[in-house]
Amino acid sequence: MALYILVSTLTDDGRKTVKSKPERIKEVNKEIEGMGAKVLGQYAVLGIYDFINIVEAPNNETMARISVALGARGTIQMMTLPAMTIEEFVKTLKK
Prior knowledge:
Elements: E1 2-10, H1 12-20, H2 24-34, E2 38-44, E3 51-57, H3 60-71, E4 76-83, H4 86-93
Antiparallel strand pairs: 1-3, 1-4, 2-3
């Protein structure tokens, strides 16, 4: 399974949703898992982004489907970044 970092910012509608129903965040994690990926970690952050999620998925196609599905709701703007562990990175450079 491949790793992905999802960096997201709430829209005005997203902030309203989270303020009135904070548990919605965890519901979205279940939806992501229902689409074939697994949320390994999730962090609320301060600064230009609101959340950082670490997600494991079988391939880019799965993540593209998830990113579009979540972004189409109009509650978040998201950037999806493929990632690899440092060990994988070093191994790749040695090839």
